[in-house]
Every structure is written in structure tokens, then in C-alpha cells.
Design goal:
Helix content: 40-55%
Distance between the termini: 6 Å
Radius of gyration: 18 Å
Largest sheet: 2 strands, antiparallel
Structural class: mainly alpha
Number of helices: 6
Strand order of the largest sheet: 1-2
Number of strands: 2
Order of helices and strands: HHHEEHHH
């Protein structure tokens, strides 16, 4: 949905039925993911005859990290890292925590450096996307 909105960014508000048809994703499913994307302030909505959705920012300003965190919540590899400070009673002596912390930083760095614009610039127009 987000890639489709990025591909049609300059066309104003896009109806869910159009995204559904182009991406072969059910309209009902799209309706279910909108609240998650709204949680991240990634979309603007317009109701009525010319209603639909559009990106809240330019595709070059929305990172893959923002989308995934809106849809999935935390991207931490282990749940004990969801709290700051870490509330796990074993975190002081945990031998694997530094491994997961390193992985988490690599994941965030990677996803922070990919925007929706990057994704659409690197893919042929004929591909279908599901984010």
C-alpha cells in the first residue's frame, strides 16, 4: 500500500479500491492496516466523493523503518529489549544480550537508510509490492 501511494504521490488522494486493484490486495485487508499506518502518522485521509489516502510526507522522507515500526511495533530481536531500561532480571549477566543489541542497531541503521523513494527507484514498474 505504501509503495503504491509513493508511486502515485503527485496524484492526490488515492481510493483504496484503486490500490486494491493495482496491487491485488483485498480492500478489506487494506482497511485493516490503515490504523497501524495512521499510528505512525504516515497517511492523510480524505472522506467523501474524492476521498482516499495519500502519504503524509514525500516518499523520500519516509523510511522503511517508520513503516515497519508502525505496522509491527517494536523491531527488537528479543522482547526483553522492548523496555528502556531493560527490565529483565537477567540482563546484567546475559551473555547473548550484547549480540542482540548489536543486531538491533544494524537493523535500525539499515532500515533508516532506505526510503520509499529508494524502493520505487530500484524496482521495475511491472512489479507488485506488499508492505
Amino acid at each position: 500500500m505504501m509503495i503504491d501511494l509513493a508511486q502515485h504521490y503527485n496524484e492526490g488522494f488515492i481510493a483504496l479500491k484503486d490500490i486494491s486493484a493495482r496491487q491485488n490486495i483485498s480492500k478489506k485487508y487494506l482497511e485493516q492496516i490503515i490504523p497501524f499506518l495512521n499510528r505512525g502518522n504516515l497517511l492523510h485521509a480524505n472522506k467523501g466523493h474524492m476521498g482516499g489516502y495519500q502519504l503524509a510526507k514525500a516518499p523520500s522522507e519516509i523510511t522503511v523503518r517508520e513503516i515497519l515500526e508502525s505496522a509491527e511495533g517494536s523491531l527488537t530481536p528479543v522482547s526483553c529489549m522492548d523496555n528502556t531500561p531493560n527490565l529483565c532480571e537477567n540482563c546484567e549477566n546475559c551473555l547473548t544480550l550484547p549480540v542482540y543489541e548489536g543486531l538491533y542497531h544494524i537493523i535500525l541503521d539499515y532500515l533508516d537508510n532506505i526510503t520509499l523513494q529508494d524502493v520505487i527507484n530500484k524496482q521495475p514498474d511491472s512489479c507488485e509490492y506488499y508492505i
